[in-house]
Amino acid sequence: MARRRCRAIALAALAVCVLAAAVPAQARGHPASGEIAVDQLPPQARDTLARIRSGGPFRFGRDGITFGNRERSLPARSRGYYHEYTVVTPGLRTRGARRIICGGPQRAPDACWYTDDHYRTFRRIRE
């Protein structure tokens, strides 16, 4: 009887995993969900946005590199569409966890997203 119960639990767990994998990331709440207005961004993020539009200068050498969107957290686009930029975190000497990801032309992006938890969640920046 214990063996049947273990098997039933294992099958139920497997079914949950299969169903979860079949649901698109955004439907699971793997955000690019929600928005944030520019005036709600931290001042450092507003500064980064202004630097993006003017083409720099940027504090970190990796700013402007291609963002791969491997987790498919943002809308699907061709490779090279997204670029990432560091949002300075006061008190840190490293890049920290805050980023702005923009899609489209680098100085005139189609859309930008803000993350303060190193790509786990994204909010589209509303201008």
What is the element layout, followed by pairings?
Elements (H helix, E strand, L loop, with lengths): L1 H21 L12 E3 L5 H12 L27 E5 L12 E5 L7 E5 L7 E4 L1
Parallel strand pairs: 1-5
Antiparallel strand pairs: 2-3, 3-4, 4-5
Description:
The chain is 26% helix and 17% strand. The chain is α+β, with helices and mostly antiparallel strands and 127 residues long. The chain has two domains: 1-29; 31-126, Microbial ribonucleases (Nuclear Transport Factor 2, Chain: A, Roll). The model is unreliable at 10-31 (pLDDT under 50).
Number of strands: 5
CATH class of the largest domain: Alpha Beta
Percent helix:
25-40%
Going by CATH, the architecture of the largest domain would be Roll
What coarse outline follows from CA principal-axis ratios?
globular
Terminus-to-terminus distance? 61 Å
Rg result? 19 Å
How many strands, which pairing sense, and closed or not: the largest β-sheet?
Answer: 5 strands, mixed
Query: Average pLDDT, to the nearest integer?
Result: 83
